[in-house]
Design a protein that fits this description.
Structural class: mainly alpha
Helix content: over 70%
Strand content: under 5%
Number of domains: 2
Radius of gyration: 26 Å
Protein name: Cbb3-type cytochrome oxidase assembly protein CcoS
Oligomer: single chain
Organism: Candidatus Marinarcus aquaticus
Pfam families: FixS
InterPro entries: Cyt_oxidase_maturation_cbb3 (IPR004714)
Keywords: Membrane, Transmembrane, Transmembrane helix
Order of helices and strands: HHH
Shape: elongated
């Protein structure tokens, strides 16, 4: 009876580690990335959304420059 349990444990661990290795490989190689969604997302953005994104980016850059100038002046 112990031999069967030992064999089941070993086989179960081998299968588990195999599945984990395949998952890690897939995550590192980008198998779960949805590049099509990212590319098609540009098609559905309106001009207003793009202008809003540009203005937010400019505000973010300005705030970073302000923080840098404040830390340099101190």
């Amino acid at each position: 009876m112990n031999d069967v349990l030992t064999m089941m444990l070993v086989v179960g661990l081998l299968i588990s580690f195999s599945v984990l290795a395949v998952f890690v490989w897939g995550a590192k190689s980008g198998q779960f990335d949805d590049s099509r969604k990212m590319m098609d997302g540009l098609l559905f953005d309106s001009e207003e959304d793009l202008n809003d994104a540009i203005s937010r980016e400019k505000k973010r850059e300005a705030s970073i420059k302000d923080k840098e100038s404040e830390t340099k002046s101190e």
